[in-house]
């Protein structure tokens, strides 16, 4: 159980100046090392004393991890680029407005100035039972406190629950998956490039992690190919407050539409599963269809097929249905 | 090394949440030790006492008369028994792999496969209990005074004493019976607690509710489940080791084809304690006939 206080437990702080130095540190300390981006997720954990790492590796001093660069017909975004930089970058605004819009929707201006794109996609879930330090499945215990007859689970998942019912809280992750981004992960053995969709893992595979990152791994960059540049985008986030809040449900879609007919589509919903939930059946059903009210309605209906609401989150079913419907019908971005 | 895993519950109480996974390595080490010890003992007996002591064959004069009265193939395991064995083997291996590989770092979607294999094992064991109680007869697995005496004679013989009394087992030697009973305890412990754990998953018949038991009781359930599962690692290592030993191959083969050669029957079993009656002879003949047709 977390002890809510502002005094963090002691840890050794490292601020490496290069990726190689950072890799050497995370390799040396393994599970004892905590990799910190902007600190927006990390400091909460430390202050609540729910996570007590021996070593914190702060990536804030590594210049090579910052900035947006053109790469071929796409872009590469350093993992330590702040969300404000992502949201205001002209290249991203002009070609990948979906990501700019999603980044603009994260929390507050202060948090976006400090929080990073790498941290936003790699942050831990916000399930309050877990964040409070309860020993649930995700924390290594034998129970999910959020899925019991008396649990408060208004913010929890509709899909892919496997013991844990927490959701992925990121706003930028659905947008990056919709843009078919690639995540560059480095460790002491080398570099690997992972599809954004595969970067996130559900509890079926590993209940204690949200992403493929293991001790010793660093997310160094995110590459977005040119495939979806300038496509028809839609992003919408619904939360209890307009700002400084996590999404109850968000949706990101990218569609290539020619003459009113959908040629290709990628639609991803956040806040409904342990990882950003890509709607492949909906994407398949949209291919070759005309953009119309009927098509949008059908997409919404298809999207919620298989949803299993918990005690207090039935509202998410209709929320998700309508967001998907609007993403197909509307032009918001 | 720790024996148990402890956590702090939302009310600040220290609670047991299960067996320490360090014990997996203890189980593997115990299994390896048992295998090495047996292999060394076997080698020592072979060197000191000679092959005749450890691989006993009867002289022809002792075989001629009984052989004429016996079918060529003696039925040792019926189709039902073999089916149970292999279903149990498949489900137990599935359960162990789906349970322990994720702990060892091999991450995959294991929960559904685990509980389905658990239900298959439960059904197989219920079938086995009914089959053994009403068809096979429970006496085949009882440990008798004769079993204990026979094993004691073998131990004495191993360490060099002259043993004159020929004491062969019935259908199942003492070690088989002991192995069966230990496996039964470990498996029943794991599946009974596993069935209780089904309260924690949603099924078509009920929604999961972890509050049906207190934290402490769940801790005990998890410890028993873990202990049964970890014990099965050692037991299966030993079982596989003996199954592949050359001198035990005829027993292993009998679990595939059902029968043993009559020579082996006479060499290793006491016909008084495991009589091959008319029914058994008919079964053996039918089994052989069906194989011939196949």
Please tell me about this protein's structure.
The complex is a heterodimer of chains A (333) and B (294). With 333 residues, chain A is α+β, with helices and mostly antiparallel strands. Chain A folds into two domains: 10-59, Uridine Diphospho-n-acetylenolpyruvylglucosamine Reductase, domain 2; 66-122 and 168-225 and 233-329, 2-Layer Sandwich (Uridine Diphospho-n-acetylenolpyruvylglucosamine Reductase, domain 3), CATH 3.30.465. Chain A contains 13 helices and twelve strands. Chain A has a five-stranded antiparallel beta sheet. In chain A, β4 (68-71) and β5 form a beta hairpin. In chain A, α11 (280-286) runs antiparallel to α12 (293-303). Chain B is globular and about 70 Å long. In chain B, the strands form two sheets. Chain B has a two-stranded antiparallel sheet. Chain B has 294 residues and is mostly helical. In chain B, β1 (4-8) and β2 (14-19) form a beta hairpin. The longest helix of chain B has 30 residues, at 215-244. Chain B has eleven helices and four strands. Classes of the chains: A alpha+beta (333), B mainly alpha (294). The A-B interface holds A 1, 129, 132, 134-135, 139-145, 147-150, 162-163, 201, 204-206, 308 and B 7-12, 17-18, 102, 107-111, 200-202, 207-211, 218-219, 222.
């Amino acid at each position: 159980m977390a002890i809510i206080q502002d005094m963090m437990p002691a840890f050794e702080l490292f601020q490496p100046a290069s990726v190689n130095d950072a890799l050497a540190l995370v390799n040396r300390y393994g599970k004892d090392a905590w990799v910190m981006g902007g600190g927006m997720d990390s400091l909460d954990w430390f202050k609540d004393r729910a996570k007590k790492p021996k070593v914190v590796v702060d990536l804030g001093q590594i210049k090579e991890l910052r900035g947006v660069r053109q790469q071929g017909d796409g872009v590469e975004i350093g993992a330590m680029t702040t969300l404000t930089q992502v949201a205001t970058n002209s290249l991203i605004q002009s070609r990948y407005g979906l990501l700019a819009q999603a980044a603009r929707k994260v929390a507050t201006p202060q948090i976006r100035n400090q929080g990073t794109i790498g941290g936003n996609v790699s942050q831990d879930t916000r399930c309050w039972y877990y964040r409070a330090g309860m020993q649930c499945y995700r924390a290594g215990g034998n129970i999910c406190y959020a899925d019991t007859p008396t649990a408060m689970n208004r913010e929890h998942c509709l899909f892919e629950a496997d013991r844990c019912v927490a959701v992925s809280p990121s706003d930028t992750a659905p947008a990056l998956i919709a843009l078919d981004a690639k995540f560059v992960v480095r460790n002491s053995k080398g570099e690997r490039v992972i599809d954004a969709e595969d970067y996130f893992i559900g509890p079926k595979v590993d209940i204690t992690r949200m992403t493929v990152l293991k001790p010793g791994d660093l997310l160094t960059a995110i590459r977005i190919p040119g495939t979806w540049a300038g496509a028809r985008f839609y992003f919408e986030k619904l939360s209890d407050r307009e700002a400084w809040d996590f999404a109850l449900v968000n949706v990101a879609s990218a569609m290539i539409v020619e003459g009113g007919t959908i040629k290709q589509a990628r639609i991803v919903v956040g806040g409904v599963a342990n990882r950003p939930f890509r709607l492949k059946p909906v994407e398949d059903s949209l291919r070759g269809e005309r953009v119309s009210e009927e098509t949008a309605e059908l997409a919404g209906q298809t999207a919620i097929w298989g949803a299993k609401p918990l005690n207090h989150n039935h509202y998410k079913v209709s929320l998700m249905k309508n967001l998907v419907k609007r993403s197909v019908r509307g032009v918001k971005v | 090394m720790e024996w148990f895993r402890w956590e702090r519950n939302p009310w600040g109480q220290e609670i047991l949440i299960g067996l320490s996974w360090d014990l997996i390595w203890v189980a593997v080490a115990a299994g390896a030790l048992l295998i090495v010890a047996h292999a060394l003992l076997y080698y020592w007996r072979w060197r000191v006492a000679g092959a005749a002591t450890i691989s006993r064959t009867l002289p022809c004069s002792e075989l001629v008369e009984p052989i004429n009265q016996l079918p060529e193939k003696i039925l040792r395991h019926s189709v039902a028994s073999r089916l149970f064995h292999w279903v149990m083997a498949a489900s137990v291996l599935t359960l162990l792999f789906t349970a322990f590989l994720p702990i060892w770092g091999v991450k995959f979607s294991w929960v559904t496969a685990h509980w389905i294999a658990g239900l298959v094992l439960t059904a197989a064991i219920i079938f086995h209990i009914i089959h053994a109680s009403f068809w096979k007869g429970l006496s085949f697995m009882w440990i008798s005074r004769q079993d204990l005496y026979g094993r004691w004679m073998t131990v004495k013989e191993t360490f060099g004493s002259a043993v004159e009394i020929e004491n062969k087992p019935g259908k199942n030697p003492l070690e088989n019976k002991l192995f069966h009973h230990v496996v039964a305890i470990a498996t029943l412990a794991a599946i009974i607690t596993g069935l209780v754990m089904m309260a924690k998953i949603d099924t078509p018949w009920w929604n999961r509710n972890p509050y049906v038991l207190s934290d402490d009781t769940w801790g005990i359930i998890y410890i028993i489940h873990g202990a049964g599962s970890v014990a099965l690692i050692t037991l299966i290592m030993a079982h596989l080791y003996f199954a592949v030993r050359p001198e035990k191959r005829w027993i292993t083969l009998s679990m595939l084809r059902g029968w043993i050669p009559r020579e082996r029957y006479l060499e290793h079993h006491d016909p008084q304690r495991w009589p091959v009656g008319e029914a058994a002879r008919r079964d053996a003949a039918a089994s052989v006939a069906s194989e011939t047709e196949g």
